[in-house]
What we know:
Strand order of the largest sheet: 1-2
Helix content: 55-70%
Strand content: 5-15%
Radius of gyration: 36 Å
Number of helices: 3
Oligomer: single chain
Order of helices and strands: EHEHH
Amino acid sequence: xxxxxxxxxxxxxxxxxxxxxxxxxxxxxxxxxxxxxxxxxxxxxxxxxxxxxxxxxxxxxxxxxxxxxxxxxxxxxxxxxxxxxxxxxxxxxxxxxxxxxxxxxxxxxxxxxxxxxxxxxxxxxxxx
Length: 128
């Protein structure tokens, strides 16, 4: 039934003593129907077509989902580029230090200068 877009409704009954059912309107509104010991009579499918506005609502939701995915992919790509840039800057500074230390015996950049260079390149990225 669900595959044919029918709304499923179950019909059931239960034996109940009539003197336990409230008779006045006010008590009947507050009375909770018993939900145990039910006997299933039938399950029927009711044809319930979608409202005309549902098609447009589904379309809007799908478009919004695609935009969110595109935005997420864009953020992910930017993070990848940033990490690649930072690794490139830090590896270049490390290679300069290693080559200088091996060839001349002294290190041209200390740790604070390497970090400062990293932050300078980072700030350049954000303020261009």
